[in-house]
Amino acid sequence: MAVASRDLSRDGRFKAREAAKAEGLASLLAVPLISKGRTLGVLNIYTRTPRDFSPDEQALVFTLASEACMAIENARLYREARHQARSMRHVMEEVNHRIKNNLQTIIGLMHLYMAERGDPATCGALREIVGRIQAIAVVHELLLDTDITAICAKEASQRILDNVRQSMAGPDLKVCGQVSGAAVRLPSRKATALASAINELITNAVKHGFAGRREGSIFVSLQEGAGKVLVQVRDDGVGLPEGFDPSRDARLGLRIVQGIVEQDLGGEFTLSIDAGTTARITFAK
Predict the structure, then answer these.
(1) Predicted confidence band at 45 (pLDDT cuts at 50, 70, 90)?
(2) Which residues does 57 contact at the CB level (< 8 Å), separation at least 6?
(3) Band of residue 220 on the pLDDT scale cut at 50, 70, 90
(4) Where are the chain's structural domains?
(5) What is 246-283 written as a DSSP string?
(6) So what CATH class is 79-169+178-284?
(7) Is 3-78 a CATH 3.40.1160.10 domain?
(8) Residue 138: CB partners within 8 Å, gap ≥ 6?
């Protein structure tokens, strides 16, 4: 309900009559700012000459008051949303930090176990497991270092490639690598799945693609367009055996990739031979 006064200096409802006179204020139209049953304030319209406010003028001020209420309420909601976002980010950072530390602890324990056992077959299997854990740890590292809502798949691929080259390539094998293409950003769940698949493909290339050789190269490329992502992992190794059928002849690593791509990414996985082996992963972003 609006309150109007033609002459503040004579209006007993107005306590600051002397102050109004000193400021040269004559008339007043006051409209309360009310939102969801709460009074947020008052919109006051003053004039320097005595006058009455017409119904149209009062309607206009009511409209302005309504818009002001919406602006104040939106500002409050925005402030609350920012506070909640900061709180959520803090929680997510703490969760990712703990997960990363736990994964690093597991990796450290497995390295100690390998050092004690010394058995080549056992150590080889454990190194593959460590590589899979490191691929997941890479995602959590990036979640801490960058935006917690999205991961740069290109940066994750580079870290995975570096990890595999350091841990899997022995002293008699030099592996070069390069990651190129688009800086595709993915939500953490898809980024984790893709990181695991890329780790398996790079590990498989190091283990089987360069048999009998002293050096080799691995190339990872990422492309995106029309809502889809294409990831290619190519090596210049010996290639797949003649008549190789992935559904029949694939080893554990390739079967893991097939399952990740189809079940976790909802995509397609293919292999081709051209001066080495090229693995392609395609999925909707």
Answers:
(1) confident
(2) 29
(3) very high
(4) 3-78, 79-169+178-284
(5) HHHH--HHHHHHHHIIIIIS--EEEEEESSSEEEEEEE
(6) alpha beta
(7) no
(8) 156, 159, 160, 163, 195
